[in-house]
Design brief:
- With 74 residues, the protein is mainly α.
- 39% of the residues lie in helices and 0% in strands.
- The chain is built from 4 helices and no strands.
Length: 74
């Protein structure tokens, strides 16, 4: 399993909180690449675990604060 910024971005707007199966369903319905679905399928899951955000799936997912730009300038 590997995540890239491009792959993880397909789950950024998912309806959180969600279970792994709900995320897989969302990825299929939204047309996410097959790699996203495969990554979700190999994640360890006890069936009841809820993911609150993309950071629960990929802790290194960059937040808006991680980028060095000023929105007020544009």
């Amino acid at each position: 399993m590997y995540w890239t910024l491009d792959l993880a971005s397909h789950l950024e707007d998912a309806p959180y909180p969600a279970t792994r199966d709900e995320l897989i369903d969302y990825a299929i319905r939204s047309g996410a690449p097959l790699e996203v679905i495969e990554n979700l399928q190999v994640m360890e899951d006890d069936g009841d675990e809820l993911y609150e955000s993309i950071e629960d799936i990929w802790p290194d997912y960059p937040k808006k604060d991680d980028f060095l730009f000023n929105d007020d300038e544009y």
